[in-house]
Amino acid sequence: MIMARVYMSIATMKNQTQLAHELQSQLKESQRALGDATADADLNHRSVGAYYCKDEL
After folding, report:
1. Of 2, 23, 27, whose CA–CA distance to 12 is shortest?
2. Whole domain around residue 16: which residue ranges?
3. CB distance 7 to 50 below 8 Å
4. Reported pTM
């Protein structure tokens, strides 16, 4: 989640607003997923998608 915030900042600085918006969306989704999860098996694998956006920068 920290990496998603850093990448979101970098995307904003580079005027890549669409990527920053997508990262923000995924970050919110991850926070919701983590808040609802009581075990690792409860986590949605899409909630780690922000990590893979690093290649876009």
Report:
1. 23
2. 2-56
3. yes
4. 0.60
